[in-house]
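pls design
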């Protein structure tokens, strides 16, 4: 009976450690996702600002004079 209880305690301890490790991993991934979301928003804003430049699209540009 005592050996069975000891085995259960060992399993419980191992499961606790595994759950804590998984929890840490999920937390780290959430932080990385949030950082990526912010980066995507910044890139969107940069793209918008570049789209508003006075330069014409390459297809709309007149060919250089030597053509």
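designed seq:
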């Amino acid at each position: 009976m005592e050996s069975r209880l000891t085995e259960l305690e060992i399993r419980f301890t191992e499961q606790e450690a595994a759950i804590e490790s998984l929890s840490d991993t999920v937390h780290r991934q959430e932080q990385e996702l949030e950082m990526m979301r912010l980066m995507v928003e910044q890139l969107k804003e940069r793209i918008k600002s570049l789209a508003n430049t006075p330069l014409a699209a390459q297809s709309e540009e007149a060919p250089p004079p030597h053509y």
